[in-house]
Design a protein that fits this description.
The chain is an all-alpha fold and 202 residues long. Strands 1-2 form a two-stranded parallel ribbon. Helix 2 runs antiparallel to helix 3 and helix 3 packs antiparallel against helix 4.
C-alpha cells in the first residue's frame, strides 16, 4: 500500500507545503527551542510507528524537517551577530546535515537507514527562509523543488503542483489553532494505512 502511486503523488504535493510552513514556523515562532523539539518529538513518534509497523529505519519527513530547522536557526544566528566568523556555524551545521543525509545512509545501507528526501529535501525550508518577500519565497520554493526533482526524479515532479495552492497563501495564521491535529494525524495515518494493508493481506 505504501507504493500505491496515487498516495505517493499526494505525498509529493504535501511535501513542499509542509516545507514552506516549516520555514514560516522558523520565522514566526516565539520559542525556537520548543518549536524544534516539537517537530523532533513528532518525528520520533513517527519513527516508532514506522519501525513497529514496517520494521523500517527510513527516517520520517519530520526528522528531515528537524534537520532543516537546525540549518535555518544556524543561518538566522549568523545573521544576528556582529562577528566576522559567524558564517562558520551554518557551514558546520549544513556540512553535518549533508553527512547525516548522504554519507550515513551510504555506510548503513545494509540496515535500510535513510533520510526522507535526502539532503536537498532538508534544504528546501532553508531556501524558502532566505527571503521574507512572498514572491521571492515562492520562486525560491520553485528553485528548491527543481533541484530536488533533478536529483531524485520520478514522481517528484508532481511536487510542482503544490506551487498552485501556495500562491493563495496570504501569510496569515488561520482562525483555528489546530496545528497539533496535523502533528498527531501524521503518525496515526501511517498506522491506519498499515492496519488496512495488514487486514487485506491476511
Amino acid at each position: 500500500m505504501g507504493n500505491f502511486t496515487p498516495f505517493r503523488i499526494v505525498g509529493r504535493l504535501a511535501f513542499p507545503i509542509f516545507a514552506y510552513m516549516i520555514a514560516e514556523g522558523c520565522r514566526y515562532t516565539k520559542n525556537k527551542v520548543k518549536y524544534l523539539c516539537s517537530i523532533f518529538a513528532v518525528g520520533l513518534l513517527n519513527q516508532i510507528v514506522l519501525y513497529i509497523t514496517l520494521k523500517s529505519l527510513m527516517q520520517s519527513i519530520m526528522i528531515t524537517f528537524t534537520l532543516s530547522i537546525l540549518m535555518v536557526y544556524a543561518i538566522q544566528w549568523s545573521q544576528s551577530v556582529k562577528w566576522k566568523l559567524s558564517w562558520l556555524l551554518p557551514l558546520a551545521v549544513i556540512t553535518a546535515v549533508a553527512f547525516i543525509c548522504e554519507a550515513v545512509p551510504f555506510f548503513w545501507s545494509e540496515i535500510g537507514f535513510s533520510i526522507d528526501y535526502g539532503f536537498w529535501g532538508a534544504t528546501l525550508p532553508v531556501f524558502i527562509s532566505l527571503s521574507n518577500h512572498f514572491t521571492r519565497k515562492w520562486f525560491l520554493t520553485a528553485l528548491g523543488l527543481l533541484i530536488i526533482c533533478l536529483s531524485l526524479g520520478g514522481l517528484q515532479w508532481w511536487s510542482f503542483m503544490a506551487l498552485i495552492p501556495l500562491l493563495f497563501y496570504n501569510g496569515q495564521r488561520g482562525k483555528w489553532n489546530i496545528k497539533w491535529l496535523f502533528y498527531i494525524y501524521y503518525p496515526l495515518h501511517l498506522a491506519f494505512l498499515w492496519g488496512i494493508s495488514f487486514i487485506i493481506l491476511m
